[in-house]
């Protein structure tokens, strides 16, 4: 059976699955003006339980497997997360009416990982009886943290360089003495720079302040999504949680995921209005980027497949987390790290378009691609 037939079959199955069905249902009732509201506290609990379950499963699997098997896939996850940010920096940022800082933040959000999209992919793989390494879900932080750190560092470097160039340009337009009086930055005579070059050196010194990376990593690790997953991972590694996993977390997983998909569908519809406030290139990017990022990760995953025996199901998971865009921990991290970026641009692009594309199109696309290649 050719790739197109497999893709169409998987896409139809996905349309009939509860995962996408609830997502579309949420968008429909929001479009019809429904006043249905699911409290934020319930959503927080659901996210915690879903990601804890994935972490527990990964921790148990890592404890019972050879850690060396993870090295290459984890390295490829890191590379993909960083690469996604640079792609946005040198593609989206070059498009008309797109601000560079907003583009970098968007790249950071698309390089980071959506726990809900990963959960949806794991569910569909299980429904179709496609095997994958249970520790594949643990690749999440290896892609998520590097993407967010890279975005914040690149954005701050860009902002600082821009400030320095603006200072230099301002001095070119007026004499140094006029600039000094107008700015009023030197209340004491002893603080006056003695020359234009010294003034520019001071500006450059301020612009070259290094962005501290560790606080960004700490911010990411403290986020609710990564915290829940890493907690589950640690418990799976260092304790024996099999009984509570089998009796509670595993049976409740699909039901909780369906509720989260409903909420995400409603949220996606509400965010569509935000995209009207920014350049429409964000819509184009949000449709194309999940496939591009996923194909890059899929290609790297195939290298791991042939080199180490990484399963095709694992390759699909790597591609799907690359296709996803963070919807939980990423936005607050970027708000704090790049405060000058417009949230309507990067959050709107992710939630309104990126997530539905990743769940509804990319998951069946990469499953079909894996089945076509793997026979």
From TrEMBL:
Positions of transmembrane segments: 20-51, 71-92, 104-125, 137-159, 281-300, 345-367
Keyword Membrane attributed: yes
InterPro entries named in the record: Sbt_1 (IPR010293)
Domain of life (superkingdom): Bacteria
Keywords assigned by UniProt, alphabetized: Membrane, Transmembrane, Transmembrane helix
Keyword Membrane listed: yes
Name of the featured protein: Sodium-dependent bicarbonate transporter
């Amino acid at each position: 059976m050719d790739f197109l037939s497999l893709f169409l079959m998987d896409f139809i199955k996905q349309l009939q699955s509860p995962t996408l069905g609830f997502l579309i249902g949420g968008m429909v009732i929001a479009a019809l003006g429904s006043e249905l509201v699911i409290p934020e506290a319930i959503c927080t609990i659901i996210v915690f339980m879903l990601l804890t379950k994935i972490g527990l499963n990964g921790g148990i699997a890592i404890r019972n497997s050879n850690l060396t098997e993870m090295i290459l896939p984890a390295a490829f996850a890191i590379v993909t997360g960083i690469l996604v940010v640079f792609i946005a920096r040198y593609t989206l940022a070059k498009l008309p009416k797109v601000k560079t800082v907003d583009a970098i933040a968007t790249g950071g959000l698309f390089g980071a990982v959506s726990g809900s999209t990963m959960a949806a992919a794991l569910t569909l793989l299980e429904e179709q009886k496609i095997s994958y390494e249970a520790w594949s879900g643990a690749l999440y932080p290896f892609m998520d943290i590097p993407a967010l750190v890279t975005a914040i560092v690149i954005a701050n470097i860009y902002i600082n360089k821009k400030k320095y160039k603006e200072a230099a340009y301002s001095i070119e337009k007026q004499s140094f003495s006029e600039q000094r009086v107008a700015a009023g930055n030197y209340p004491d005579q002893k603080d006056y720079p003695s020359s234009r070059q010294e003034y520019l050196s001071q500006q450059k010194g301020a612009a070259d302040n290094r962005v501290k990376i560790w606080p960004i990593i700490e911010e990411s690790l403290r986020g609710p999504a990564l915290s829940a997953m890493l907690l589950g991972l640690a418990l799976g590694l260092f304790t024996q949680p099999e009984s509570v996993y089998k009796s509670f977390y595993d049976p409740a997983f699909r039901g909780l995921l369906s509720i989260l998909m409903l909420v995400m569908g409603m949220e996606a519809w509400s965010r569509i209005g935000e995209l009207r406030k920014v350049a429409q290139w964000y819509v184009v990017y949000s449709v194309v980027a999940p496939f591009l990022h996923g194909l890059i990760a899929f290609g790297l995953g195939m290298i791991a497949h042939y080199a180490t025996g990484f399963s095709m199901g694992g390759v699909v998971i790597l591609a799907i987390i690359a296709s996803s865009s963070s919807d939980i921990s990423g936005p607050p991290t970027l708000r704090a790290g790049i405060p000058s970026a417009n949230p309507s641009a990067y959050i709107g692009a992710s939630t309104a378009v990126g997530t539905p594309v990743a769940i509804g199109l990319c998951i069946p696309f990469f499953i079909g691609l894996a089945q076509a290649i793997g026979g």
